[in-house]
Specification:
Elements: H1 2-33, H2 40-48, H3 55-89, H4 97-156, H5 167-190
């Protein structure tokens, strides 16, 4: 009886030790993989909720904040430069005339900006007109070629009373092709 009891104890110990090692391996894997998986209920709840996760929107926001940071740095550096320039030239802020000069400079700058805007607008308008003219020319050339092909197709598809193709138009077409290729070959060798 004692032997049976001892054998059962040893078998349970072996089972427990194998369970603990497999349990330990499973725990290590869970740690390595970043924890346990989600339960089905948790997964379903997460899918049903609108988490507003949009990678494109996040990217846009990051870019916006990055640009805002650059703009603020630029403005600070400009303020610093103006501050240093003021002291280097020996200007003082107590003079009343400086305010009038600043207003004149601002109005001059505004006129300059308006002129630049007008120039860029005119350039853009010219470019747009050129693009439209090019598109129109392409469209006309396409329509002309289409009409030519339609006419050639009509000639090539003509049949005699007996259903045979009219050879006159086919031979003319072949002759034109030969003349073109001879003209291109002769023209390219002289050039």
């Amino acid at each position: 009886m004692k032997n049976l009891y001892r054998r059962d104890e040893q078998e349970t110990d072996k089972r427990n030790s194998s369970k603990s090692s497999s349990e330990m391996k499973r725990r290590k894997n869970m740690k390595r993989l970043g924890g346990g998986g989600l339960s089905l209920q948790t997964f379903a709840n997460m899918k049903s909720q609108n988490s507003h996760y949009n990678p494109a929107l996040i990217k846009k926001q990051k870019e916006f904040y990055k640009n805002a940071k650059y703009v603020s740095k630029f403005k600070k550096s400009m303020k610093q430069q103006n501050f240093h320039n003021k002291y280097e030239t020996g200007e003082s802020s107590s003079k009343v005339d400086d305010g009038d000069d600043k207003q004149k400079v601002k109005s001059n700058k505004r006129i300059g900006v308006e002129e630049v805007y007008k120039q860029t607008r005119e350039e853009m308008e010219k470019a747009r007109m050129e693009r439209e003219a090019a598109i129109q020319a392409k469209k006309e050339a396409k329509e002309e070629a289409e009409a030519r092909r339609k006419l050639a197709k009509g000639k090539m598809m003509r049949k005699t009373r007996h259903g045979q193709p009219v050879m006159k138009y086919r031979i003319e077409h072949l002759l034109e092709q030969i003349k073109k290729s001879a003209g291109n070959a002769g023209g390219s060798s002289t050039a």
